[in-house]
Amino acid sequence: MNLSRPFILRPVATLLLSLALTLLGALAYRMLPVAPLPQVDFPTIMVTASLAGASPETMAATIAAPLERAMGQIAGITEMTSSSSQGSTNVIVQFDLERDIDGAARDVQAAINAARSLLPSSLKTLPTYRKANPADAPILLLALTSKTVDKGKLYDLASSKLQQTIAQVQGVGQVSLMGSALPAVRIELQPQQLSHYGISLDTVRQVVANATTNLPKGELQGEGLHWWVDANGQLTKASDYTNLVVSYQNGAAVKLSDVARVYDSVQDQYVAGYFNDSPSVMMGITRSSGANMLATIDAIKAQLPIMQKMLPKEVQLSLAMDRSPSIRGSLRETELTLLISTLLVIAVVFLFLRNARAVLIPAVALPISLIGTCAAMYLLGYSLDTLSLMALIIATGFVVDDAVVVLENISRHLEEGAPPLKAALDGSKEVGFTVLSMTASLIAVFLPILLMGSIVGRLFREFAVTLSVSLVLSMIVSLTLTPMLCSRLLRAHKHDASGAPVQPNVFYRAIERVLNAVSDGYASSLEWVMRHKRLTLLSLVLTVALNLFLFTAVQKGFFPDQDTGMLMGQMRADQAASFQSVHPQLLAFSRLIQSDPDVASVMASTGGGAFGSRNTANFFVSLKDSSQRKSTATEIANRLTRKASGVPGASLFLMAGQDLRMGGRSANATYQYSLQSDSLDTLREWSPKVYAVLRKLPELTSVDTDAQSGGQAVKLVIDRIAARRLGLEMTNIDDFLNNAFSQRQVATQYQALNQYYTILGLAPQYTQDPEVLKQLFVLNSAGNAVPLSAFARLQSASAPLAVAHQNQSATTTIAFNLADGVSLQQAKAAIDAAVISLGLPGSIHGGMQGTAQAFVAMASAMPWLILAALLAVYIVLGMLYESWIHPITILSTLPSAGVGALLLLLATHTQFTVIALIGVLLLIGIVKKNAILMVDFALHVERQHDWAAERAILEACRMRLRPILMTTMAAFFGALPMVLQTGGDAALRRPLGLTICGGLALSQLLTLYTTPVVYVYMDRMGSAAKRLWRRRRPRSSVPASEN
Q1: Which CATH architecture has domain 183-213+235-266+712-799?
Q2: For 42-132, which CATH class?
Q3: Mean of pLDDT values over 240-260
Q4: Is the pTM of this model over 0.85?
């Protein structure tokens, strides 16, 4: 049966079908969303809660723990982590990849409602949730600056006008404000004055709370008119509070201004932010899970002119960091690589065919297959990203293979004197099954990836499907359009008097002489190999052994580092450092970073419990375009970290922002190792020991830990008997301390666009030294002032600045980067050895987390994935050839490809990552094409002419040498631009190009000799098995009664 026949005979219909496919693909290409990587995100929800003045331990015990218990019952959770700092708790819940994010959000809200009765009564607002992962790098950073407007007003403008506008944009997950706080009225009490008048802090709190109300007041209804009843019960600015009467002494009113300083300020005074050197309020925007990054960024940027008009003229809204230029630049580089690969492949075809008409045929088939693939990508909801474009780059070599195989066979018939139509019909019929076999067996390589449920499987599913679709389209085009074009465009070859084809020009004759010399040399060397079959077979066995050795020798990693044009990290001062001492260090680091010639801008912020403890500052660094700098993002981060080591009193941790982040932890380095225990005391005892050991490992750099248990605390040791005798209850004492030191929110001002708080506390001179506590008085139930020293003594203690949980257990996470030239595999081995040497107690469990954990899972799955791909190919080939034996012949070509790939990775000091693994799987599909071309032809002539196996395979090698060389060189040069390209995300594509080029270079040399030998041995084995079966079959068929 000739599948190509109806298409050859109906050229108009064939051309129109091809044109329709091309137009659909071109239209789909323009509508494809653009992204850095496939949209693969773990559904992640972040729950936040705040309680002013609460310590990290209090937040962890009273808020984080009840929420974790309630949410721990939700189905589909893969990881739940929490971080509690001063006045703030974040609980990050990650779900299985199959879990619907909206359904998960409903379950989280139900869990929050269920935990409501267990939360502290002082928690004014319920915890809220967002569909966002705080570990994700922001996609956009905006800065509000002004020379005349104070930062509280800037923060109010951002919160009231801009935050909601941006949050409404499709794809936005979270809009975080940094650098200041909302405006507030601050009341700073003078405890000596209060004691003089006999007024308690709680009395002041109640007076202020009762003085500003906004309750319903009713209405009046007359016969003809209607009135609303209102009053001036709402106080909105500091001047409204100063005349509040707090108490009466001897008939005289004691006003709030008599015992306190009242002024307009901000809710939290311990917050600061800078854009370069300018005080700034910053807005960090992250995308929601599954949202398209570039579409989201473009939608936000389209709103910027509108938002600028919403602001006063003296306020500037600046785009501080934008991920879209680096993403688009990377995609332009990848598209250029695709174009270069296409041109190189066409040049290879021209080199072999040396006929403009003949070259035109695969040159037409190639873009049709690639452009048509875009239509399938659009229907499947895929994006135009680095991996899908890499699939199209690789497809250039594959797609042309099918057309070349058909074209070469038809050309051979023309050389033998057949007219073009007959040559097209006969030639396409002969290789139709070969093309089908090559395509089906190559697609089978990707079946294990398509069935993988991990993040790796999801990440590369788009790559595998895109490449598979292009292969299917290539097969269809090569069996329909290609033979039809051959029948119309090719001409019968002219022959001389001796019957040999006439060679038209010098170039043609020169290349032909080279190819003939290669063919003759190959034929001679093959004869020698066939005389030494056992030696050849031994070399194949040694190649298999060498594969195993090289696989263990090559260094392994998870995912190549990207250069996204952004750095992010944190400055950490001494754990006992105050906000006042951290502030100048933040400015010093910011100026140091700005001085680097590769840095475009710097954003830094400190303070605010949601963004770290008081001794830390967060940095976001925008780099210049990759064309304007010589260093990669990782190199710049390492350089700045080394320079920052000279700044005393603090440490700086920077890392390159990555599009692929695993887990929900925000850390100061790329990789994490965590320790878990149900005993917090045991964890605090051993965490510093593990941290100290890991810091000494030469394989690791930028080692950091989130275990900050060395903060200073002042503990009041209360004599309960004495306090009771003096008329004091613990609630009186706690309320006093809360009112004095927690920046307590005692009233709410409801205004048109936002709500603002009134903050109560002591004057600054009473909040800067623990010894001041001895001067304070607490009013008892009789109204008498009782000094704290009468019933309590001060005790110095240490306290954590943050408390972390993972899956409801206390956790310490140690983050680290890799030293130059060190692989993640080496780092893991060093960490495991160091931890084992410490002899951790059984109550502590350690393990890799995030990206490092994904690497551990991938490393254990690598051999099984390769084995599964081999098995899938064997099954498909066995079904196609109806043979148990010759699929092994075809698969025998793979060991040499593996050796070549691994050798080139070792020679270039490139790690074996997920990208390299995909390259090895692709080699399984590429290299076996050579064997298929040989085996398919050998089986054909063996059956048609009743030839011996050795004669048949030798003839196949002679006849198929040129198409084998052509297809291999096409695949090689199609991948070569990925090896040679520099800048941008070239490091992401290079491992794929290296494995393919290395594998093809060596396998091309070896398989041309090993495949014929294996074919002969497999044929002999099959014949022996048949003879044994025939001898055993008569015996088994004799009835038992005859024996």
Answers
A1: 2-Layer Sandwich (3.30)
A2: alpha beta
A3: 90
A4: no
